Amino acid sequence: MIAEETAEFGILVVDADDNLAYASGVATLGSIQAALMANLADKRGSRSGMFAIEAMQSAVAIYRVQGRSVVFLIQPSASRSELFDFVASVDFADAILNQLLESPYSGMVVVDSEARLRYLAPAHRKFLGVSRGTGVGRHVTETVTQSKLQDVLKSGKAEFGKLWADNDETRVVSRTPIRKDGEVVGAIGQLMFKAPERVHHLSQEVAELRKEVAFYRRELSAGAGQDRQFEQMIGNSDAIRQLKSDLLKVAPLEVPVLIIGESGTGKELAAQALHALSPRSEKRMVVVNAAAIPGSLVEAELFGFESGSFTGAEKGGRRGKFELA
Q1: Sheet containing 117-120, strands listed edge to edge, beginning at the edge strand earlier in sequence
Q2: Among 12, 93, 142, 316, who pairs with 72 as Cys (CB 3.0-4.6 Å)?
Q3: Mean pLDDT for the chain?
Q4: How does DSSP assign 28-87, residue by residue?
Q5: pLDDT recorded at residue 49
Q6: What b/e sequence results for 102-121 when a residue is b if at least 16 CB atoms lie within 10 Å of its CB, and e otherwise?
Q7: How far is it, in rounded angstroms, from Cα 10 to Cα 265?
Q8: Which pTM was predicted?
Q9: How confident is the model at residue 183 (pLDDT cuts 50, 70, 90)?
């Protein structure tokens, strides 16, 4: 089947004797033919692939060896495109594109502007239980029954993280409209996660990491505020004077001290002042906010750990709060 001749596309067929057997579209131009023929010897040894040629400002050629003939498909561009630079720079570009299409983790569904199915990746074919070529040229919903790509074509807006159910299974997908010269010419649906549960697990992992980051920020903040002095407790009320008097009495003693009060009343400031007045004022004040330590960090924070004791452990280990105090 020969594609219709256009100014934007071309086909060139070379027979077993390296003679031109057919040319159409841009492949009829001498510059294109010369560039393709110059690359012909290197292409005979492989079944298919793609490469970039410097002709008509730039062009990408896809070739396939059929029997003893070589068929070239040429797509020129008015200016150098990202596709041209990618193919020109990476000599295994075709292997990368094949990996993207065949990957079981990023199955692709491609439809044209009329929502007709044009391509169904192996991952989706396996999931749907259909063979290669099934439904091509027909409305996408005839094969992918719960597809919403037709809605994306109408709205022209991408959708990410949407649930798609079929065969009693639910998957997380994205849907993206494809534009050419400013108009929507098709849409692509891609698999993001094989199960919504995986998204939930990722969310939990992110939440745990946020807790750890918040914890260490509080640790740094506490350390930065240890140089506050007793005089920084501002106030002349009876309550403040009594508090300062109690701190002065207790600070020299070897006794535990419990400071209570509502949130925001200055308990931490009182503790820092007490430390500054104590015989240990030249030592480090070790602060432990037990309620803020994530469960996964309790043992490491209180008792410390040695280098390599677990994945991600700091080189050289770290002393625990008890040892520091």
Answers
A1: 117-120, 108-112, 183-193, 169-180, 159-166
A2: 12
A3: 77
A4: GSHHHHHHHHHHHHHHTTSSEEEEEE-STT-EEEEEEEETTEEEEEEEE-SS--HHHHHH
A5: 77
A6: eeeeebbbbbbeebbbeebb
A7: 78
A8: 0.43
A9: confident
